[in-house]
UniProtKB/TrEMBL annotation:
Protein name: Glycoside hydrolase family 5 protein
Domain Glycoside hydrolase family, residue spans: 55-330
GO MF entries: hydrolase activity
Organism: Algibacter aquimarinus
Family: Belongs to the glycosyl hydrolase 5 (cellulase A) family.
Keywords (A to Z) from UniProt: Glycosidase, Hydrolase, Signal
Domain of life: Bacteria
Pfam families: Cellulase
Glycoprotein in keyword set: no
Amino acid sequence: MRITRVEQEAPDDVSGRVASEFDNGEIRNLSSSKIVAEMKAGWNLGNSLDAEGPSETHWGNPVTTRALINEIRNRGFNTIRVPVTWRFQQGPGPDYKVNEAWLNRVEEVVNYVRANEMYVIVNVHHDDTWIVPTNDNADSVKDRLSKLWTQIANKFKNYSDYVIFETLNEPRHENTPQEWTGGTAEGRDVVNQYHKVCLDAIRATGGNNSTRQIMISTYAASTLPQAINDLVIPNNDSNTIISLHSYFPFPFTLGGTDTTWGSDSDKQQLDAEMDKIKTKFIDNGHPVVLGEWSSGNQNNLSDRIAHATYYAEAAASRGMASVWWDNGNSGVSNDGLAIFNRQNLTWPFGEIADIVVRAYE
């Protein structure tokens, strides 16, 4: 299905223009749960502004345009997550000043999204090389995180509550045995400390940031029991949303070792995964955004459609917003996660997009 909301010939140039041209700056005093209910189906601008290099094209995706974002809206998505890597654009301590041109570029992309009246999530993404969750690194990391988020928060201070911050992406200790298994007790504790430093820095900037919604992730954004059980909401802040990544089941979605999905057992296991999240967080008043999920293209479109249908409906029926991870690669591989072609603004897997959107209608 397609929703014609924005004309494709809308100009790209939104740089240097005040936020009020695209965003009214209103904080509506809605609860976190109400915000999540409005976010609905989302799409990730993955491997662009979060590329691990000096520019958003470093990993081969094109420069993000307003026409590109218009297409995502016209397909029916209501939220765009904008992952951002900051370390290539951040100066040395003690100030850790972010390149102004980079901040302006991030704002420009946010303005593309807000011009479409969509929710937008801005985060700290592939900065794991320095955000090391150990006691030995904690003091220096917290200092840098606080200064980074102070700059980001001030940049978007006057934007409405349609702009959401996500403190950290998949905070974890890279290249350790526990990286993807829920972490160690020390690692989980330090990740909680990092979230608090980020949230405190954002709140300290005042204005709309005093109550802006902030997404907080578990260790590695994992849904494993030890990760979800040890997450601490900083300051018991009521304007927070739980951020989780559930590529479930992994062998089918990312692992590349299983190309089929749809049996009764598959559905029961996915229901159990969703129920676990709901019981832990939503039933206790903490709304959830599944900030990343998708499946790789392994020449198995019918199975991907079956999985996307069941997954999106399972998330929607339990009150979770969900944001498809699109990395720009739609080729045949377990990493072929794109449903949208950013080069020519077409939808090689539009059926999947429509299914995800339809689940929230």
